[in-house]
Amino acid sequence: MRRPLHEHLQPRGLVSRRAFLQLGGASGLALLGGCAVGRTSSEPSAPGRATAPATCTSAVLGIVAPAPGAVLCSGPLTVLGTSTSGAGAVNWRLTDAGGADLAAGVADQVGTATAPAFVVPLELQPGEYSLTLDAGAGSPVDACRSVTQSLLVVDAAAGLHWRSGASGRSSADGTFAAWRGDPVTVSSTWSDDAGGQLALWPLTGDYADWTGDLDIAIGAIETGENWAAAARGEYDDRWTACLRRLTRLWGDRAGVPYIRFAHEFNGFWYPWTVHPEEVGDFVTAWRRFRALQLQHAPAARLVFAPNSESAGDRLFDWRTAFPGAEYVDVLSTSYFNGRPVITSAPEFWRQALRSDPTGAPFGIQRHLEFAAGVGLPFALSEWGCDGSITDSPDFFRQVFAFCNVHGGPGPGQLAYEVLFNVADAGAPFTVEPTTSMPASASAYQALW
Q1: pLDDT at 87
Q2: In the 3-class helix/strand/coil scheme, how is 30-44 assigned residue by residue?
Q3: What Rg value do the Cα atoms of the chain yield, rounded?
Q4: Per-residue pLDDT tens digits for 146-174
Q5: Which of 396, 407, 398, 373 minimizes the C-alpha distance to 47?
Q6: Confidence tier at 427 by pLDDT (50, 70, 90)
Q7: pLDDT-derived band of residue 141, with 50, 70 and 90 as boundaries?
Q8: Which residues on neighbouring strands pair with residue 93, listed in sequence order?
Q9: In percent, how much of the chain has pLDDT > 70?
């Protein structure tokens, strides 16, 4: 179990000692697992926050994540940057606090011709580092084509700076926490048909004694219902009953209930699917629900959660369905490895930077950037890997790296993530108690 952060930071000199690193290939460093503490600032990360010197009129390179001043944890972290078109190869060099060279390589290109981007996957032990990125032709470094950022890495024992957990019965009964060796501070569950919306069965069943945070998907409308009727208030009574029951069943628990209303509305598999002509009614209905939530369940937080990828034969830009930041507390998504299969850091970040055919966010980096743009924290209410398709420990490492550089409670930061660990014979996503992806399960257990 990890020690509290304040206990870890007391010994002087902990982060100033030279770290031992082991070169792990041309684009990264391989070493121990660990956890993240996240950046100290609550501001969202944005391209160009670490840039070339002020004497340069046009910066060639910019670092998107981690943000300057970030405090990171030992283990996987990935530096994400952007470059101007035609910048060419980006070389990187890592030095310790004394300026001694530790490793160097060429960054992986993960962007497009019109939106160049690159990543440097690292795994670091505690220490102070400087990472220099250079798009110049050689030595000496061209100051107008380079950028340097400090990286402060603390011990993995310090603990996570974001809320972390898993769904499934083993999370509710404590088995999962014992297996991974660290507390589960957030879980997720579903009670998302009309009967479940009123009964909220998980709160009287598996999660009756749960005291952590809980992301609960309650659906929205049922088969035979429609968003136009919802916009007129025809389901207000049912929604009110749901919210009152949630408040009563939650009582004075220490955790926060996160209400995931109409989750994955941009798919085609739920009765509350939104079609292009229904967007206006959906927004009106969402705002009605928000008013009811603030009245009857004010301690809860309302989560706007499109699926990562819009699906179906009537695609629309899901951002047009966003009701406004004042009607939402957290922006979340569901994100899974399977199609296409992600087996490496470059593949992960190429996917993370994707937009869908309408221009809306597809990858989790783009979803997080949208959250930052509207001033909301970001979450992964469901994430995982389909073990019937692949066993990819690198996917798990890069999810951790994403959390490491983005973790925190502020706008544009990763507030919480929940591994989808629900047993289903048709979709083997679990890492515990049984798994069809042992390498991924081992990677998760070592990192989290």
Answers
A1: 65
A2: CCCCCCCCCECCCCC
A3: 22
A4: 899 999 998 877 787 899 999 999 999 99
A5: 373
A6: low
A7: low
A8: 104, 132
A9: 84
Confidence of residue 312 (pLDDT cuts 50, 70, 90): confident
Other C-beta atoms closer than 10 Å to the C-beta of 112 total: 13
Q: Enter the CATH code of domain 163-447.
A: 3.20.20.80
According to DSSP, residue 388 is labeled T
264 is catalytic: yes
Q: Which of 123, 278, 309, 382 is catalytic?
A: 382
CATH superfamily of 5-158: Immunoglobulins (2.60.40.10)
**One of 123, 264, 278, 417 is an active-site residue; which one?**
264
Domain residue spans in the chain?
5-158, 163-447
Q: Whole-angstrom Cα distance, residue 381 to residue 186? A: 10
Residue 255: count of CB within 10 angstroms of its CB? 16
Distance set, CA 251 to CA 184, 244, 245, 248, 261 (Å):
20, 11, 10, 5, 20
d(CA 183, CA 171): 9
Kindly list the distances between the CA atom of residue 47 and the CA atoms of 51, 106, 238, 253, 379, in Å, as whole numbers in the listed order: 9, 20, 44, 39, 20
Residue 367 near residue 333 (C-beta atoms within 8 A): yes
Q: Taking the model in full, what pTM does it have? A: 0.87
b/e sequence 384-421, b meaning 16+ C-beta within 10 Å = bbbbebbbbbbbbbbbbbbbbbbbbebbbbbbbbbbbb
Q: 296-305 pLDDT, tens per residue?
A: 999 999 999 9
CA distance 46 to 278: 33
Please indicate whether the domains covering 5-158 and 163-447 agree at the CATH topology level: no
Can 309 be counted among the known catalytic residues? no
